[in-house]
Amino acid sequence: MKKNKELTDYCKAVKKNLHCSKQLKKEILHALESDIEEYLEQNPDTTAEDVREHFGDPADFARESLSVLDDEEIQRQISKSKFIKRIVLIAVIIICLVFTTTAIWVIVENSRTAIYYYSEEIGEYE
After folding, report:
1. Is the Cβ–Cβ distance between 37 and 54 less than 8 Å?
2. Which residues contact 7 (CB under 8 A, 6 or more apart)?
3. Is residue 61 pLDDT above 90, yes or no?
4. Residues 8-57: pLDDT tens digits?
5. Which of 19, 37, 71, 98 has the fewest CB atoms below 10 angstroms from its CB?
6. Are 29 and 14 in contact (CB under 8 A)?
7. Do the beta carbons of residue 36 and residue 13 sit within 8 Å?
8. Which residues contact 36 (CB under 8 A, 6 or more apart)?
9. Please, what sign has the CA dihedral across residues 78, 80, 13, 50?
10. Which residues make Cβ contacts (< 8 Å) with residue 73, sequence separation at least 6?
11. How would residue 92 be classed by pLDDT, with cut points 50, 70 and 90?
12. Taking 90 as the threshold, does the pLDDT of residue 72 lie above it?
């Protein structure tokens, strides 16, 4: 059996469930593809379902692959995630401040340069 759509879908499902850096994800997927190719060479009459049974559910495979990470890698991923969230939050706050400041400036400028109209009535005194 050659690598077909079902096996590609299996690898995509594993990739979707891997929550780690791109480099680590790439390494895990490369190892998985190598393992699948090796399994297919040893068992030429294997179906895609046999491969799924051998390697397990994609979510479980991803969870097990990530569970072997050392604490340092996990802490690095958590720190990176927190850093990205902080940067996004700061950017949103800055954008809101710029928008608010601009809106206030426009309102003040418009009130300063506004042309006020008044009307005069000319009346006759008797």
Report:
1. no
2. 36, 48, 51
3. no
4. 888 888 888 887 778 888 888 898 888 888 888 888 787 878 888 888 88
5. 71
6. yes
7. no
8. 3, 7, 10, 11, 51, 55
9. negative
10. 20, 24
11. very high
12. no
| Residue 71 C-beta-side C-alpha neighbours within 13 Å | 0
Q: Which two tokens stand for residue 60?
A: 């479980």
- Give the tokens for residue 46: 């294997």
92-118 per-residue burial string, b: 16 or more CB within 10 A, e: under 16: eeeeeeeeeeeeeeeeeeeeeeeeeee
Q: Which residue has the tokens 């991803």?
A: 62
Question: What pLDDT, on a 0 to 100 scale, did the predictor assign at position 115?
Answer: 74
Tokens 């690898």 found at: 11
Sequence length of the chain is 126
